[in-house]
Amino acid sequence: MRRIICSIVSVIFTIIRCIIWKLLPYSKITIKGLLRFSPDVVCEFERGSRVSLGHRVRVHSGCKIKVRNKASLNICDEVRLNYGCIIVCREHISIGSGTGIAPYVLIYDHDHDIRDGHD
Predict the structure, then answer these.
(1) For residue 68, what is the DSSP state?
(2) Could you tell me if 38 and 58 are in contact, meaning their C-beta atoms sit under 8 angstroms apart?
(3) What residues of the chain score a pLDDT lower than 70?
(4) In whole angstroms, what is the distance from residue 119 CA to residue 117 CA?
(5) Model pLDDT, residue 40
């Protein structure tokens, strides 16, 4: 029963989050179907970023998704990001349909130079 309630809360939270994302004037976000993001997932979409989320994308607790200025992130259908994953996109990242990403995987499309002060 607890699992069902948590799932319902996640879906409701995700719907509210998606509505807010669609209202943001500075990012282009395309949502192609039902998503499920845990409430503590951190998403940062900077000005000029483009994000495409496919149907049945599931993002678990502790994940962070950061799409920097003018970058493009494409997550296709049936993708599952397990607990604690981090995606930081500075240019372009694409994750294909049906991909499952293990817990605590870090995905970057840059060299992670910490001198500039950004992830």
Answers:
(1) -
(2) no
(3) 21-27, 111-119
(4) 7
(5) 87
How far from chain centre, in Å, is Cα 55?
13
Question: String of b and e for 10-28 (b: at least 16 CB within 10 Å)?
Answer: beebbeeebeeeeeeeebe
Instruction: Determine the Cα–Cα distance for residues 106 and 108; give it in Å rounded to an integer.
Output: 7
- What amino acid is encoded at 59 in this protein? V
Q: DSSP label at 60?
A: -
pTM for this predicted structure: 0.81
Q: What is the amino acid identity at position 38?
A: S
Amino acid identity at 103: P
Question: Measured between alpha carbons, how far apart are the two ends of the chain, in Å?
Answer: 38
